[in-house]
Amino acid sequence: MDSQTYTRLDTLTREQCDFSFKCFEEELVNNIPDRIIQSLLNLRNYHLGSQVNSLEHCLQTATRAFRDGADEEMVVCALLHDIGEELAPYNHGQMAAAILRPYISPENAWMLEHHQLFQAYYYNHFIGRDRNERDRFKGHPAFERTLMFCEGWDQLSFDPNYDTMSLSDFRPMLESVLSREPYGSIKS
User: What domains can you pick out in the chain, each with its CATH number?
Assistant: First the structure.
């Protein structure tokens, strides 16, 4: 089957559709962990005024979560929480949530999406904003989870002397979470 045989989706045949889905799986889905690792490695280029680069920050956050006994899904969320900073600096939490949402719980997706606002507690008052903006979400089922994530791991993870686990230590967990059957899968 030649991939160039259709020019519009409204003329797509069943065979062309099947071939396209096969290519989708082979070219995109099967390589997600590798592309995520590459995106994480790109974070080495950004320090954002900190003593550690953004990759090290993500690794520290994930290491702290792992050492505190967090489950595999939470550790992967910690690892990827800032993955969107390079392309979406003002809404990187939403980007991280969008990447993982098909594979994680709604509570963890909400946590990723909102962690920036919760993290702003530590600096909003310096820029003339209310540091308690996060309080408008009190009562949400993922409020305490997000508070714990920021207080216990995220805001602590800028230490150049912290004994951080390596990216390769987290790869099996990343692959495990990303190997889950995603909602909305074309396989369904």
Answer: 12-178 (1.10.3210.10)
Q: Which whole-number Å values give the CA distances from 116 to 67, 134, 160, in the listed order?
A: 23, 9, 22
Please state the rounded mean pLDDT for residues 137-156: 98
Polymer length of the chain: 188
pLDDT tens string 40-73: 999 999 999 999 999 999 999 999 999 999 999 9
Q: What is the mean pLDDT of the chain?
A: 93
| Inter-residue contact 115 to 93 (CB < 8 Å) | yes
- List all residues 6 or more positions away from 19 whose beta carbon is below 8 Å from its beta carbon: 1, 3
Rounded Cα distance between 145 and 105, Å, is 12
How many H helices and E strands in the chain? 8, 0
Q: Which long-range contacts (CB under 8 A, 24 or more apart) does 132-135 make?
A: none
